[in-house]
Amino acid sequence: MSKHQIEILFIAGFGSSLIFGTFIGSIADKFGRRNNCLMYAILYGGACITKHFGNMPVLMIGRFLGGVATSILYSAFESWLIFEHNTSPIRFGAIRSAHYGGSMYTFVLEWTPALSRAAGDVGIPHGYIFAAFMVATMIGSSVFKLLQQHERPESFMRYVLLLAAVCLSMPIVAPDNLALVFGGFLVFEMCCGIFWPSMGCLRGTYVSEETRSTTLNLFRIPLNLIVIFILWQNFAMISIFKFCVFFLFAASIAQHALFLRTEHTPRHQKLPITVTDEDENM
């Protein structure tokens, strides 16, 4: 299967998420987040079954199911969790989420060719590299716990987004330096580990409970458009990373705007969801 065919499969997934995401979100708000989460399990289970076939139409169906399921994954579960814990600026959050998410999902497709180019004729161990990325993400989640004890996410996420932009600039400034490219990717994954819980806290603060699932899927519309645009054009790898860096800088600017809007708001209560050592040991 060629790289462009893989890109087409990615486009199918993000396209189905773009088209059906808002509709799926409204189902969760009207008929319950629990039922929507059960629907996710069925849809994603079907998507996984298609991975056992080497037929392009079957794989396209799987990507379609996976795209719809992803819309549920990134909206209904979080809405359900925040609702159970009982706990304008939204446009800045939407801009930041779209630009960061677009860069991150584009990175998912491009890290392999970037590292392969940096490694030259030497094959890269994809499994070990992916495992290293997951460890870096877990480290980032732990770093988030430390940061939120001293600063609000509105503040420290400005620097995290800037750092992420610098990390993804490595394939641009030093495309043949394996250590720099791989190190930059590891730090970027750590930034992802900080980003996700930060976004959960911010959405729990600013997004209305009554329409939370629908709003979160609306956030994903520009994200899906960004990824589809980049992949559909079949840009060169360096050009794709330039787009990613630009989007991350734009996300940092949006985050700074959110910070300026809320910096005088007293931190009179805890964020909607906090992680304690007791929770980790359960």
UniProtKB/TrEMBL annotation:
This is Major facilitator superfamily (MFS) profile domain-containing protein. Keywords: Membrane, Transmembrane, Transmembrane helix. One of its GO terms (cellular component) is membrane. GO terms for molecular function: molybdate ion transmembrane transporter activity. Pfam families: MFS_5 (PF05631). InterPro entries: MFS_trans_sf, MOT2/MFSD5. The keyword Ubl conjugation does not apply. The lineage of its organism: Eukaryota, Metazoa, Ecdysozoa, Nematoda, Chromadorea. The chain crosses the membrane at residues 6-25, 60-83, 128-147, 156-174, 180-202, 214-232, 238-260.
